[in-house]
Write a structure and sequence with these properties.
This protein has 429 residues and is α/β, with parallel strands linked by helices. It is 27% helix and 28% strand. Helix 9 links the parallel strand 16 and strand 17. The chain binds zinc ion (ZN). Zinc ion binds next to helix 6.
Length: 429
């Protein structure tokens, strides 16, 4: 991996990627742009798959999800897949279908809470809007990416003088009543016609639009030790997978990068990790080698392994007791291997050993995480893909703070370490 960049360059690259992706649709668009620039070809699920040469790369988009692959020299039935998977979505506030609210002279928008939002962090922030809009085209509905970074709205906190107990009792919000962002005063024609005007007057049919923080991501802290940015969970993983994927040389096995929308709401959707997208890609690549042996998918799965990359809980100096005392991952300390006895993480002894080997091979330290035994554990796309497709899987991630906050924190030292390990797995298996 002689063509690797410095830690600082990759951290800066992550900031650029995060800024390019305020919504899953923008993340996929940016990822597709970079893949296309690297010679990958977009193909479509509606069309008959054509044979591709070994070493050639393609990708499929399904809404906010994208799966890319580089065909191996050998059949995946024999040489397997090396898969790295992550999610493109992040918790935020989404605009309702009939969002317009006028109250006490203010214009507000009704919002739904998407995923496990750390609600109080969204207050008193300058919020923009981004996502996907369906508009009326000559042959039916057409998608449009939409984004404005103009601060359009705020969810204003109640003044402390009217909420004296807040610092003792905590900031609590009723999701229906107290999260509606305020957009304006006076007269307004409503969200739909505003949106239409933003899209040069196109007729708006429907949307998936959310709010995002308009503050730019940045490096910060002493010697720029930290990355301060929104959506590090899980664009930190999408970015490092993409960089590693593009760095990798073709191999006997087939390399696959799978970025899924809807992880934060359970993945059981048309474009989520529980949908058929990745399994269909496996079938397509098995068929590419004309080796249609009975049980081909099972053999391919058994010859494969997958890295499920999602951000990990770094130990917090002010809340260190919330971590298991022997498992306190540090920001900057290298990839975190996550395991859980009830397999909320997919890691098994076999895949953890394999991951340790990969880290050792590229001289990157690794750390372990298990939840405190008396706390419920989070999860990732790892266990569901492992179960559905029969691929041995390990769950790893970069350590971070403020997970699911509107603005999160990770370490500048980590992306380069993650990219080195992922590229090693893509190439060497
Ligand atoms: Zn995540």
């Amino acid at each position: 991996m002689s063509d690797m960049k410095t830690a600082q360059q990759y951290a800066q690259g992550l900031l650029d990627y995060v800024w390019a992706g305020p919504s899953p649709f923008h993340v996929v668009e940016e990822t597709a742009r970079r893949l296309t620039a690297a010679g990958f070809e977009q193909v479509f699920e509606k069309e008959e798959p054509q044979a591709i040469a070994s070493g050639a790369g393609q990708f499929i988009i399904r809404g906010g999800s994208l799966v890319a692959w580089r065909a191996g020299e050998a059949s995946p039935v024999v040489a397997g897949f090396r898969v790295a998977a992550a999610h493109t979505d992040s918790p935020n506030l989404r605009v309702k279908p009939n969002p317009d609210v006028k109250k006490e002279g203010y214009y507000q928008l009704g919002v739904e809470v998407y995923g496990g939002v750390l609600l109080h962090t969204w207050t008193d922030r300058d919020l923009g809007l981004s996502g996907r809009v369906m508009v009326e085209g000559p042959d039916g509905a057409e998608p449009r990416l939409f984004r404005t970074d103009k601060p359009m709205a705020r969810i204003a906190n109640l003044a402390i003088h009217l909420n004296r107990g807040v610092n003792k009792d905590g900031a609590k919000y009723n999701k229906q009543k107290q999260l509606k962002p305020v957009l304006g005063l006076g007269e307004w024609d409503g969200f739909e016609s505003w949106l239409s005007a933003q899209l040069d007057g196109e007729k708006v049919l429907s949307w998936e639009i959310g709010f995002h923080d308009t503050q730019q991501p940045s490096l910060g802290g002493i010697d720029d030790a930290f990355i301060f940015a929104p959506r590090l969970d899980n664009l930190g993983s999408c970015y490092t997978i993409l960089e590693a994927f593009l760095l990798s040389k073709p191999a006997a096995h087939t390399q696959v990068m799978a970025l899924f929308d809807h992880e934060e709401i359970g993945s059981q959707t048309y474009r989520g990790a529980r949908g058929p997208l990745l399994g269909d890609v496996m079938d397509r690549l098995i068929a590419n080698h004309a080796q249609q042996a009975i049980g081909g998918r099972v053999r391919a799965g058994a010859n494969s392994w997958m890295i499920s990359a999602d951000m990990a809980h770094g130990v917090h100096p002010n809340y260190a007791e919330m971590h298991e005392p022997n498992h306190k991952p540090m920001l900057g300390g290298g990839p975190v291997l996550k395991s859980h006895v009830e397999h909320r993480y997919a890691s098994e002894a076999e895949t953890m050993a394999r991951m340790r080997g990969a880290c050792a091979a590229v001289g990157v330290p690794c750390q372990e995480f298990v939840n405190r035994t008396d706390l419920a554990c989070g999860s990732t796309v790892g266990p569901m893909i492992a179960a559905d497709l029969g691929i041995p899987t390990v769950d790893i991630g970069m350590a971070m703070l403020s997970m699911h906050s509107v603005r999160e924190q990770a370490a500048t030292a980590d992306p380069v370490q993650m990219i080195a390990v992922l590229a090693h797995v893509f190439e060497e298996g």
